[in-house]
Amino acid sequence: MISRMRLLLALMFTIMVIFTGRLMYLQFAMAEEFRALSTENFLEQRRIAPLRGRILARDGTVLADNRIAVDLMYWGGEIDFWDRISFMLDIQDEPREPDPGDPKERRYGTVLAWNIPDSLMPAIEELVAGQSSLYLRERIERTYPTNLAAQVVGYTTEADPQRFPGYELGDLLGQMGIEKSYQEALFGSPGRELVEVNNRRVVLSSREILPAQPGQDVILTIDPKLQRAAEDVLASALQYINAERKRQDLPADETVARGALVALNPKNGEILAMASQPSFDQNVFTRRPSSPEDIAALLNDNRNLPLLNRAVSEYPPASTFKPVTTSTLLEYNFVSPNTRFECSSSYRFLGITFRNWANYYRGNYNAAEAIADSCNTYYFRAAATTENVTKGWGQLAESLTNRALELGYGQPIGIGIAEEKAGRIPTDAWSRSFKGYPWRPGDTLNISIGQGDVLATPVQVAQFLATVALDGRQVQPHLIKQAGEQPVEVSEKQIPGRFWGSIKEGLRLMVTDYGGRSFLGSQSEFPIATAGKTGTAQNGKGPGYEHAWYMGYGPINDPELVVVVFIENGGSSTLVAIPTARDFMAAYWGVELP
After folding, report:
1. Is residue 278 reached through a cis peptide bond, with omega within 30 degrees of 0 on the bond before it?
2. Which of 529, 552, 547 lies closest to 537 in space, CA to CA?
3. Region 310-339: what's the mean pLDDT?
4. Residues 214 and 237 reside in one and the same domain
5. How far apart are CA 533 and CA 506, in angstroms?
6. CB atoms within 10 A of CB 198
């Protein structure tokens, strides 16, 4: 019996020695390591998201802003006063436990209610206080109070850190327009804070280590009143489109006008309005809770493409390109201003019939008259008389390419948004590479009237017309007036030329004597003397569905406004694009239309 007692005591003593030794090891040898682990369990560094910079119009009107939104968040577990909280916030569903596999829910918990109204905040704060399962999260929500120039301003969404290194959950990332192009300036610099959390990762206290630097405000050249007028008249072009369809015995069933309007000051290059229709509500992407149905409707609208900025997209410029051809013919001495060619209904060249827009003889035109009446066959005949045109890529084709590039076509202008397209000025090398065969004589005739493979953006057309209006002085069109405290530098150059006057005379005659006289030529109805040019671009939809262009400027003696209107599948440029441009110019100059 005594032996057994001694054995039991020895075993107990041995166990106590082992436990005592382990305890002393943990308390002394591992003390620093466990102290660090304990601190890490309750103290962690977190990133402070900077306040995003605003986007402002030229007069200070806020186009993109921020608001502090407060959401009710849930860590899991029991909730006190749930009946009262759910009734006040109209929460229909039962709380769902956070998903540990979801990075957002692992960090923030699940959202029980978005955007708690200010009027309910005191009561909700009182009910949530002291509950470890609930907390109120503040976040920055991007807002677009005016919804003006939606495609220009753009919108933001929450960043995905895996796709965009350097950003974290909750950061706002620009998706298009100024929001995307000026992301770095608008975003600012994040800060750091040291936060104390409990075992549910609820913040108990925090201390700022590095303050966040807010993003810079970006000021645009856009005039909000003119921008609103541009969007309104562009939307109202629907009446002209359907009237034109009805006139041509086509279905007058369009429900929305698709097109663009660009207005700029040629003297300083400031874009006063840039509208694209149809537009969209940017808040659909930033408002919480978001509507997946509304977002999908915008993203999947392949017919109207509301997110497309048509003002910087590329289309066949049609007859708005004829003044470029005229400039080439004159400056490279292919013809003189008084050289005349017949404006017939068609022209036969190398066995192919090239047609005019009118099916009857129009006269014997010089360069200005050919612009004014938009005579295709004048340009066909002028092109056919140049050396080597029958061999394909010849002197005129090369000269026209060089002149178009010199005038700003075929490359992005750099107005301040990434969506701007380059357009296209085709060459023999391009034809061989992309079409698989060399340049053909008919290609020269086609691009001479702005058809074929040549493409241009409405803003490029506006830049060209501004250059003509100022006798070759070209100021870079731009949307950004100032980013932070730094004004944006704008380039300016003089395009060489001796025959600006002949081109301007053709643009004036177009308004006073030809296609534009019914809408802009009567000084009693429109007292501002303007000049301009129409364009009707053929496309795959067939007759009656051509793209309608009009470019105009005024006053003639002291140009202060350039307007370009583009109506996708609008039909007649004279009956659709001109009256749309007239409506905007009337709003700009305060003209009361009869």
Report:
1. yes
2. 547
3. 97
4. no
5. 9
6. 12
552/438 same-domain check = yes
Give the Cα separation of 561 and 462 in Å (integer). Answer: 10
The answer for 350, left when phi > 0, alpha when psi is -120 to 50, beta otherwise, is left
In a domain, 391, yes or no: yes
The domain of 287 spans 224-589
Q: Are residues 268 and 194 in the same domain?
A: no
The CATH number of whichever domain residue 376 belongs to comes to: 3.40.710.10
Token reading at 228: 């609103």
Residue 439 lies in a domain: yes
Ordered DSSP codes for 523-555: TTT--S--EEEEEEE--TT-TT--EEEEEEEE-
Same domain, 378 and 507: yes
Supply 94's token pair. Answer: 């039962």
> Which of 13-17, 257-261, 289-293 is modeled with the greatest confidence?
257-261
- CA–CA dist 496, 24 (Å, integer): 91
The partner residues of 564 in beta bridges, in order of sequence, read: 262, 551
The domain tally of the chain equals: 2
For residues 495-523, give the mean pLDDT.
93
Residue 581 lies in a domain: yes
What local confidence, expressed as pLDDT, does residue 16 receive? Answer: 82
Report pTM. Answer: 0.89
Got the DSSP string for 291-323?
A: -HHHHHHHHT-TTT-TT--GGGS-B--GGGGHH
Residue that is last in its domain, among 179, 204, 220: 220
Residues 343 and 419 in one domain: yes
User: Are residue 144 and residue 260 in the same domain, yes or no?
Assistant: no
Measuring CA to CA, how many Å separate 286 from each of 69, 154, 175, 277, 309? 12, 11, 11, 21, 19
Burial 77-92 (b: 16+ CB within 10 A, else e): eebeebeebbebbeee
Averaged confidence pLDDT in the chain: 91
Instruction: Give pLDDT, residue 590.
Output: 95
Contact in structure between 345 and 356 (CB atoms under 8 Å): yes
What is the pLDDT confidence band of residue 35, given thresholds at 50, 70 and 90? Answer: low
Distance CA 132, CA 198 (A): 9
* Coil, strand or helix at 12: helix
First to last CA, the chain: 125
- Identify whether the C-beta of residue 124 lies closer than 8 Å to the C-beta of residue 112: no
The mean pLDDT of 524-541, rounded to a whole number, is: 92
Cα distances from 352 to residues 11, 131, 346, 436, 487, in angstroms, run: 112, 84, 10, 21, 54
DSSP E strand boundaries for 351-472? 352-355, 363-365
Mean pLDDT of 502-515: 96
Let me know if residue 34 belongs to a domain.
Answer: no
My answer on whether 404 and 257 are in the same domain is yes
Residues 449, 548 within the same domain:
yes
Boundary residue ending a domain (163, 193, 220): 220
- Specify the CATH number for the domain of residue 146: 3.90.1310.10
Predicted confidence (pLDDT) per residue in 449-506, tens digit: 999 999 999 999 999 999 999 999 999 999 999 999 889 899 999 999 999 999 999 9
